Amino acid sequence: MFRTPFPTTVKLGLLRLKNTTPQLQDVVIVGGGPAGLSVLAALKNSSKTAHLSCKLVEGGDLNKIRNFDETAYSNRIISLTNKSMRFMQKIGSWKHLNLDRMQFYDKVAAYDSSSHEALIEFTNDAINYDPMGAMCEVVNIQKSLIARIDELDQSDCLVDNVKVEAIEESTSEIDWPIVKLSNGDAYQTRLLIGADGYNSPVRRYAGIESRGWAYDSFGTVGVLKLASDQYNLVSLQRFLSSGPLAILPLPEDDATFVWSAKTEVASILKSITNDKIFVALINAALRLEETDLKYALNKLQVNPDDTSVIEDLQWRIELFEPNEQLDIPVVIGVQPGSRASFPLKMSHADSYVGPRVALIGDAAHTIHPLAGQGLNMGQADVASLVAAIETGIDRGLDIGSTLVLEPYFAQCFPYNHALLGVCDKLHKIFSNDVYPIILVRSFGMRFMNSLTPIKDFMIKTLSV
Amino acid sequence: MAAFDSISKNKIASGSSAEELKHFNALASSWWDVNGPQRILHKLNLIRMDFIQETIRDHLKLNEGITNSDDEVYIPPYNIDLLPEGVRDTIVREQCARREEILALKKMKVLDIGCGGGILSESMARLSFVESVKGIDLSDEVIVAANLHKAKDPMLKHKLQYKLQSIEEIPKKEKFDVVTLFELLEHVDYPSKVLTEAMSKLKPNGWLFLSTINRDFVSWFTTILMGEHILGIVPVGTHTLSKYINHVEIKNWIASNSEYELVASRGSIYIPSYGWKFTNNENVGNYFMAIRKK
């Protein structure tokens, strides 16, 4: 009873101390998405960098990700390239992926809504048995990385359910940035890695400008049920004048779709509450001519619950003469509650590095999803950044120095810039119904489809 | 702050002044600004470290002290590139892992002669297999600047000490695993004396790393004409061509001394907007040398 005052005082003293002296760290990563978790797993996996003291700060609950397997498919599904898969093997996270929820595919087919002969197909190299890619939920990747971090006995590096309140410059002798957290803790870090997405607070702290534009388009995504399981080796994409619609395979008869569409069309898609209407519309969008599709969309714009559209589209689809070269899947259902949409944009940071700062993933660049490169670019960033840090350690440098970080920027920026540009141009060429452009692009697609060297080059770029 | 003491007695503590401290801070920050006037030196430091790492790693005895032949790392007696990729990668990975194991047990003592603002000293002190670094210089100004910068990185506190000292002033008994003499010999009047003194600080099997400049047209063109007069990277008068020493002169001098051997040499060249690069010709322009005490 007499002793109670003492602990209270001590406790208060400690609390105050906690707020004033930041903990020194070698690396603080902001953001627990795939890029942030990859950089932590890769640093802890490398014998050269494993000794660095690291913290990863994430606002969400990582335990939810650890237990995601029990749930239905998430609608955030991406395509992994072989290069990304090899990197995951290298850092040891690959074996923790739930392969039952992933689908490898060995063919990509793209066709144009304005001309049925305009078809381009990419098939994998049959000799190497490398797939073209694999569809995988983002949460599956996150889980595998957390499992790898746990396996390396580094769970203490993960600080979740905590938000970054402020990032400040240091006023003391040690000129490392200070990251203040919502739980009262603060870290002062030699190197601050921003894996904190498009609106990156780390990028803003570093004063690095990001340039780009919004596409006046939204991506609508969701999980589909197909009539049969024979489509799951193909990733299919149709270029509609309002933007591309992709059907991407999941195990057995499941699939996911990404429908990039102008805001006007996207808002109609969003307003449809009846999944049956949506299914009819997707089947139509994969087959019918633009005029038929527009007719249905106009009706739905007036009344999003107009079920007469289903019958009408069904009748038109029956009249549709399929292209024999192309097998288009029949969609029979959509996973309830799986539909969602997000605005599309392109942005690129002027630099990925500054004194004691490195940006990776969406904090450095956001890309149109039509080529499925977003997450893979982030993985390439991580591989390059970690290699730069390893070299810096060998050279005895301060890993926050721009001397260490510049090679990462020099290596990744030109490649990412080219890829961003190509996807931007593809979007502009295909989201278009000006007749001369249609003529040129359908000629271009047929021409490219017959030219093996160009296709091989594109396959290498996009999948290897 | 032991290293501070020798200077602080006569410089900083004794009545001095915020102004003086400001001067040293400015010197430290200009020396350490990687985009500032010393950028070329910061870039050079990258390949100095590459040369040191490469030489030390290449000369570790991977199977020393291993009696059980099953535990030995396979070292093929022929060019490893002749092997299939998978086999080669496995061998290289095993060798690298063993190198890390051996290095992890080392606790090297390093002497950096002519440490300046501490660019190399700090790098050496951050290496995991280095236990301590002593940086010496004859300019009290740079020692103060080096100490000011050292305080910015907590990991250097116990590993790195600077002293205002000449080589001769180092106690006879103090020996080192690594001694460095970078960009120094071309500035002294009696290079052979400095080199002899530096080599005498080595423990058996210890390494001396040095870099300097050949006395030739290329060196005059790059270091004096371009470096001093045209591009103005370093002040006019920094270099004197007659003080440059040819690689072959040091090589022959080492060969005449049975206690030491020349283990490795590399030429180097500065390419504007890229940085420094190794060349295969150590007889032209700048060069590195690794000398080992037997």
Describe this structure in words.
The complex is a heterodimer of chains A (464) and B (294). In chain A, strands 5, 6, 12, 13, 14, 15, 16, 17 and 20 form a 9-stranded mixed sheet that branches. In chain A, strands 1, 2, 8, 9, 10, 11, 18 and 19 form an 8-stranded mixed sheet that branches. In chain A, strands 3-7-4 form a 3-stranded antiparallel sheet. Chain A has 2 domains: 18-102 and 142-212 and 345-430, FAD/NAD(P)-binding domain (3-Layer(bba) Sandwich); 215-343 and 442-463, no CATH class. Mean pLDDT of chain A is 86; it is low at 1-18. Chain A is an alpha+beta fold and 464 residues long. Chain A has helices at residues 5-20, 34-45, 62-66, 82-90, 138-151, 201-206, 263-271, 275-287, 290-302, 308-319, 374-394, 402-430, 435-449, 452-463, and strands at residues 23-30, 54-57, 77-80, 103-105, 107-112, 115-123, 133-137, 158-159, 164-168, 178-181, 186-194, 210-226, 234-240, 243-249, 254-262, 331-334, 340-349, 353-354, 357-359, 365-366. By secondary structure, chain B is α/β, with parallel strands linked by helices. Chain B has 2 domains: 2-64 and 106-293, 3-Layer(aba) Sandwich (Rossmann fold), CATH 3.40.50.150; 72-105. Chain B has 9 helices and 8 strands. Chain B has helices at residues 2-8, 18-32, 39-58, 85-105, 119-126, 140-150, 191-199, 217-230, 247-255; strands spanning 108-113, 130-137, 160-164, 176-182, 202-213, 260-271, 275-279, 286-293. An 8-stranded mixed sheet of chain B has the order 3-2-1-4-5-8-6-7, sandwiched between helices. In chain B, β2 (130-137), α6 and β3 (160-164) form a beta-alpha-beta unit. Chain B: It is a peripheral membrane protein. Chain B: Its cofactor is Mg(2+). Chain B: Belongs to the class I-like SAM-binding methyltransferase superfamily. UbiG/COQ3 family.
